């Protein structure tokens, strides 16, 4: 399996774990072990990537939420966003600031994820926020 496909599957799994974490507030380690018990993923590289991305997003949640909040329209708070959109943005920021994947791939993946879990409007919103952050923080790779 090529690296792009591996990362794509890992992002999807990390998103599912992060959503579960936000809904239950179980400890991250418990989420990971429970998730993989119920999930039939055999590829250890996907599991490792997903676990690392999930842990990064959990550990950097406050940092990510502070940044995201600065890019919302005046009068909006992060609490107004749907759980899927919040979590997609958190994962996107975790990868932008700490990942190795090309920026265009990160933006494309999370925009597509927003389209799948929400709609076109959410996808445009996610793309706009992540792209503005990328530009403002001068993230290129």
What summary fits the major beta sheet?
none
What percent strand?
A: under 5%
Assign a percent range to the helix content. over 70%
The end-to-end span amounts to 22 Å
Spell out the CATH superfamily. Answer: NusB-like
User: Which CATH class?
Assistant: Mainly Alpha
CATH-defined topology? N-utilizing Substance Protein B Homolog, Chain A
Q: Which second-level CATH architecture applies? A: Orthogonal Bundle
The secondary structure category is: mainly alpha
Radius of gyration: 14 Å
Instruction: Give helix and strand order, one letter per element, not per position.
Output: HHHHHHH
Total number of helical segments? 7
Estimate the mean pLDDT confidence: 96
Query: In one word, what is the shape?
Result: globular
Low-pLDDT runs of 5+ residues are none
* Domain module count: 1
Number of strands: 0
Task: Report on this structure.
The chain has a single domain, classed as NusB-like (N-utilizing Substance Protein B Homolog, Chain A, Orthogonal Bundle). Helix content is 76%, strand content 0%. It contains 7 helices and no strands. α1 packs across α5 and α4 crosses α5. The longest helix has 22 residues. The protein is globular and about 45 Å long. The mean pLDDT is 96.
